[in-house]
Amino acid sequence: MHDIVKVLLFASLSYVTLFIISKFLGKKQIAELDFIDYVTGISIGSIAAEMATETDTPFYYYLIAMAVFFLFDLIVTLLGRKANFFKRFLRGKPLILISEGEVDFEQLKKSKIDFYDLVGLAREKGYFDLSEIEYAVFETNGELSILAKDNSRQLKKEDFPTIPDAKPELTSYVVVDGQISGFGLNEINKDKKWLKRELQNQDAELSKILYAVYNDNTKKLDITYKKKLN
């Protein structure tokens, strides 16, 4: 059989196999991709791609390999439904990164993300200021679930028809994880000398600060220290 014909046949068989496996694994492979699902999806996809173009190796070798990954993922899913401890061992457990409005520095380190990642995940959920968040849970699939403070619920302009429009502003972090942010200082038109003077006035040690923002109303720094909440 000509190699081009083999590639056409193998690629078609690979596509059909991926479709069947995806239907069996369910929509969680797309909607809730955690570590095990990620490994399974990447591995099966790589095997299928090689199967589509490799003409020397018998195609059923690739089918067997994909079936093994599929079966392992299926077994893990079934065992996870029967034994919660097994599911937590393989998939991990959610981490509370913000509790009662305070960032838990130890949990943040366990999550393997840094403060900027946390801010970015919060912005994706529509919260540009961490002070608006009461609880934030880092889920096993990498999503951040947020419970806002009562006074920070997402309001509509129509809720206050008599109040004139106010221009929204981004929060400028001038200190992040014990490091001075030059970008944040530029945003508020301040320099490092000013920042060091403000820290000294508040008896704040730079290395112990998780983040600090400039409060335009009080003209002072709002400082949050690295804390272990539990």
Give a topology summary.
Elements (H helix, E strand, L loop, with lengths): L2 H23 L2 H4 L3 H19 L5 H24 L1 H8 L3 E5 L2 E2 L1 H6 L4 H10 L8 E6 L5 E5 L24 E4 L2 E2 L1 H6 L4 H10 L7 E7 L4 E6 L5
Helix pairs in contact: 1-3, 1-4, 3-4, 4-5
Strand content: 15-25%
Radius of gyration: 25 Å
Strands, total number? 8
Mean pLDDT level: 78
- Low-pLDDT regions: 27-31
The main β sheet shows up as: 4 strands, antiparallel
Lateral arrangement of strands in the main beta sheet: 2-1-3-4
Structural class: alpha+beta
Protein architecture, described:
This protein has 230 residues and is of the alpha+beta class. It has helices at residues 3-25, 28-31, 35-53, 59-82, 84-91, 105-110, 115-124, 182-187, 192-201, and strands at residues 95-99, 102-103, 133-138, 144-148, 173-176, 179-180, 209-215, 220-225. It has a four-stranded antiparallel beta sheet with strand order 2-1-3-4. Strands 6-5-7-8 form a four-stranded antiparallel beta sheet. A hairpin with a 5-residue loop joins β3 and β4 (144-148). α3 (35-53) packs antiparallel against α4 (59-82) and α4 crosses α5 (84-91).
